[in-house]
Amino acid sequence: METSFGQVALVVLCCVTVVASQSVESVDPCKRQPFRGRCPSIKGKIPTRSQFVLRYYERNSECVSYPFGHCADDENEPMLYRYKHDCEKACLDKAKHTELSSAEFSSDYDISSTSSTTVTSNTDDNIGKFVSSTWKPLSDDDAQLSSSSQESTPASQATRSRTAYNAVSLNLLRDTEFKGIAECEKRREAIESGLLKSDFVPICTNHGSFLPLQCGPEGEYCFCVDHNGIEIPNSRSISSAKPNCSEIMKAQKPAGYECISPVDSGPCTASLTRWYYDEKREYCVKFQYSGK
Question: What Pfam families does the annotation carry (predicted)?
């Protein structure tokens, strides 16, 4: 009886493992995944809170970011796209390649010779425009690959079109691999990999620039940054109310000499002691810089 129970338990464990592995493999990283607030129990440890991170998915032929709960110790966590250019390479380029493959299939297997000529001509025109906008000289290896492709296949319009497309794809892939990413994404990658120490992980916009409002790891404080990701002085808030970065960034630094500048009450919610020079009384006067 004990042996039977042991066998049943082993079968159930195997089934659960297979289902879990299939569920992880079936996750499409190009689609948005649900946010999870807590991480599963690993090796008997108490479940912990997940880390708030941004991941990218494809929406309306564009890669956009969304919040996701990351668990560092969860081996079954799906591999999602951390950077926009990775999402574009995997999701958008895959869709373009599928459309091109469908067009090539139609041109190869069209019964009507007139229709086949029209489709092939349009394909050549599109590839010609594509090459003119993205072409750069091929290396010796790429040229040899194109030459061998032409010798081993029939000399037809569709074959030459595919050969040109493959040659251009090699250059585009090379360009994509070495294409520089935005400064915000570079800094985020350096912090997450441990190469750079910082008290916060920057949040980037869809275009890779710094989000004006940044917060600490646990959201215990928030502050504003400029386009270079540098914290704007006196913008940090340690309360639940987040600073109004749009108003703070509108506050222009006086263009003239500071001793003859008028009083600027400021856009902040805090109250800070500042001084200004009163020309009539000819001495410095104290005032509260807050905006309230």
Answer: Kunitz_BPTI, Thyroglobulin_1
DSSP 3-state of 271: coil
DSSP state of 163: H
**Strand ranges (DSSP E) for 235-282?**
272-278
Determine which helix (DSSP H) or strand (DSSP E) holds 286, and give its type and residue range. Answer: strand 283-289
Query: Both tokens of residue 122?
Result: 């349009």
Q: Which of 121, 149, 177 is the last residue of a domain?
A: 177
**Listed residues 158, 177, 196: the one ending a domain:** 177
Report if residue 277 sits inside a domain. Answer: yes
Nearest Cα to Cα of residue 225 among 241, 213, 242:
213
Q: What total of structural domains would you count in the chain?
A: 2
Whole-Å CA distances, 12 to 6, 26, 30, 176, 282? 10, 21, 32, 46, 87
- Mean pLDDT value across residues 144-165: 47
Exposure on the CB side of residue 59, measured as CA atoms within 13 A: 10
* Residue bearing tokens 């000499």: 257
Q: Tens of pLDDT along 1-36?
A: 555 655 655 555 555 454 444 444 588 999 999 988
Residue span of the structural domain in which 262 resides: 256-292
Long-range contacts of 222-228 (CB under 8 A, 24+ apart): 224/248, 224/249, 228/183
Longest CA pairwise span in the chain (Å): 101
What is the value of pTM for the model shown?
0.31
